[in-house]
Known about the structure:
Layout: E1 6-15, E2 18-28, E3 33-37, H1 44-51, E4 59-64, E5 67-68, H2 77-82, E6 84-87, H3 99-109, H4 115-128, H5 144-156, E7 162-166, H6 174-189, E8 194-197, H7 201-206, E9 210-215, E10 218-222
Parallel strand pairs: 3-8, 3-9, 6-7, 7-8
Antiparallel strand pairs: 1-2, 1-4, 4-5, 9-10
Amino acid sequence: MEKPVLYLKDASIFQRESLILSDVTLHVKKGEFVYLIGKTGTGKSSFMKTLYGDLPLQKGEGEIVGYDLATLKESDIPFLRRKLGVVFQDFKLLNDRTVKDNLLFVLTATGWKDKAEMDARIDEVLDKVGMKTKSFKYPYQLSGGEQQRVAIARALLNKPELILADEPTGNLDPQTSVEVMEVLQEINKNGNTILMATHDYALILKYPSKTLKCDENQVFEVVQKSV
Length: 227
């Protein structure tokens, strides 16, 4: 049996001393598209931050893309993040450089050296999200939906084993949210594993998939109809 990309067993998620989620047991298999839902304040963001090394896993077992979260060292975090693609609600693009230079910055920071290879990879990921013709623009010249497409392209650069999307449509209107979702669906069809935190139930109904819910300090899988 193939190893899951993400696996947690009896894990507790803390924000400093506060227990946010307890006894979390779950696994995400390669190629899955999984939603993480729950009201604001139920622990979705703390859960995501634990997965990409912003918060330590203080109790229980956890493994993500081959890294043991319980024993994760500070020095491992940059390497872990190279195997993850993280998409944030507020895009986190650098406004003082073009789309292409935003992506070049990431490649340079993660050890790419060959200019031709870097250019080819940037073209490839921008093409995947329908932004190839806008590589010379600055983020402030783009709409919110276009900025999020660039953020998704950035997440794809290092061919991640898992994409963590934390409320990727949170700042977008319904139509743009659907467009961004279409991009994520397409990427998932191409084999990328995606875990997406969202409170947009309209999207979940439109694109049903495995759904985990944060509620009352727990995370559990929900049957689609009861979302």
